[in-house]
Design goal:
The chain has a single domain, classed as Arginase, Chain A (3-Layer(aba) Sandwich), CATH 3.40.800.10. 38% of the residues lie in helices and 15% in strands. The chain has 11 helices and 8 strands. Helix 2 packs parallel to helix 3. 53% of the residues are buried.
Length: 285
Amino acid sequence: MVPSIGLACGIGGRVSGAEMGPLVLNERLNADLLWKAMAYPPSGSDSYERIAAANRDLAEAAYALAKTEPFLLSFGGDHSCAIGTWSGVSAAKEEAGDIGLLWIDAHMDSHTPETSETGNIHGMPLAALLGYGDNRLTRILHPRPKLKPENVALIGIRSFEEGEAKLLERLNVRIYFMEEVKARGLDEIIPEAIRHVSNQTVGYGVSFDLDSIDPTFAAAVGTPEPDGLDPAEMLAATAHFRDFPPIAFELVEYIPALDASLQSFRYIEQLIKAIVPATVPSARL
C-alpha cells in the first residue's frame, strides 16, 4: 500500500474546481493507495491565510509520512499545495540533508506578490519554497527556505512572466524549456535532471502539474498551454525513476468538472500506475 495524502484546495488558482481533484482521485483511482490524510482550507476571506492554514495541515501530514516511509504520494488541488507537500518532506529529511525537486509544469510558478500580474497564489509556490514571497507561505513548519536553487530543475516550461523568470535566472535554477525538451527528448532530459537535483541532496521529489502535458491529451486543467509534453513520452520516461527513485511524487491541478470524457483522468491513472511500481517495487497494483 502506498501512503497518500491530499489537499482539496482550489482557491489559489485562476479557475475553480481543482479542489475536487484529490477527492475524485481518492474515490476513483484504481491503485493500491492508502489514503492517510485529506486537508481542506478553513473558511474566511483572506486567501493567503486560508492557503497557509491548509498547507500547514498538509505539511504536517507529509512530515509524518516522510519520517517513516520511503515514498509517498501527494495530490492537489491547485499548485499552491506544493508549499505544504515539500515543506513537510524537507523538514522530515533536514537532519540528513537537503532535498531536491523536479518541477514538471507548463509554468514557472515562481512569482511573489510583488511580481504577480494576477495575484493567483498557484503561481507562487516554487518561489515560496525557495524562500521568496509572503512570509505566511515561506515560513510553514520553519522559517528557512525549503529548497536550495541548485537542487531544483524545471521541465516543460513554456509560459511565464518576466518577474518570475528574472528570479529564477538570478538564482541560476536549471530550466528545461519546451524547446530543449523537444530537441533532446524526455528520455535524455529526465535522468540528467534527476542527477542534477540528486547531486547534493539526500533525495529528491517530483511535483507534476497536469498542465505540463499537451492539452490535446489532458485538457482538464485551469491554465492549459499548447505545445506541451507528449503524454506517451512522459509515461515512458517514468522508467528512469526505477534507477533513481524519488522520495515523493505530487500531482496537481486536475479539474474533474472539465473532464467529461475522462481523458485526463485516464492519463492520471496510467501515470500513477507507472510511478508506483517504479518507486515502490513491492507495491501491488
